[in-house]
């Protein structure tokens, strides 16, 4: 790997961490009544995300949706199978039971992420993202219009946005 690629990877990691930190800092500022300061943290976090995206793109990190889903599956699998179990063992060996518990629980969430991405990948590859065998409730992500059907309309009858803005409606409360 060239030094430039190493620098891009380091810059991507740094900007990504800064974005998250500033988002967390904004929450604290807002809780303490500093809404203007929270806005500044959030604006800066957005800027950092854009910087990270530029570095990631330059590194060749963005593919099409299928490639991105496959990479996401691989990442979640690594976290599930290797990273979090190893971290939990190390924490346990060091006597930090709370950190070990956290690593184990987060690892379970990562497994769910992996399975969700696998299901979505299958749907994209099979052309069934907007098709179901049985009618379901589809919700327009723009105006909230809900239709019961095997697939959403090509255009929302309410706001006229295209089918790509529809998603399965979650009706469980």
TrEMBL record:
Q: What is the required cofactor set for this protein?
A: Fe(3+)
Q: Per its UniProt record, what InterPro entries does this chain match? A: Ferritin-like, Ferritin-like_diiron, Ferritin-like_SF, Rr_diiron-bd_dom, Rubredoxin-like_dom, Rubrerythrin, RUBY_RBDX
Q: Which domain of life is it from?
A: Bacteria
Write one Gene Ontology MF term: iron ion binding
**Pfam families, per database record:** Rubrerythrin, RUBY_RBDX
Asked if tRNA-binding is a keyword of the record, the answer is no
Determine if DNA-binding is one of this entry's keywords. Answer: no
Q: What is this protein called?
A: Rubrerythrin
């Amino acid at each position: 790997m060239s030094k430039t690629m190493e620098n891009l990877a380091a810059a991507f990691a740094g900007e990504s961490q800064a974005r998250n930190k500033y988002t967390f800092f904004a929450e604290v500022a807002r809780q303490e009544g500093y809404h203007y300061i929270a806005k500044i943290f959030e604006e800066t976090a957005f800027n950092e995300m854009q910087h990270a995206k530029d570095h990631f793109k330059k590194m060749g990190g963005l593919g099409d949706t299928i490639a991105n889903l496959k990479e996401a599956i691989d990442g979640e699998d690594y976290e599930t199978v290797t990273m979090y179990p190893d971290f939990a063992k190390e924490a346990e060996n060091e006597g930090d039971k709370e950190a070990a518990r956290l690593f184990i629980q987060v690892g379970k969430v990562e497994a769910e992420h992996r399975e969700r991405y696998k299901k979505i990948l299958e749907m994209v590859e099979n052309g069934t993202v907007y098709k179901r065998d049985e009618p379901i409730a589809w919700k327009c992500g723009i105006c909230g219009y809900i239709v019961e059907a095997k697939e959403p309309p090509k255009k929302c009858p309410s706001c006229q946005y295209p089918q790509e803005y529809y998603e399965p409606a979650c009706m469980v409360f």
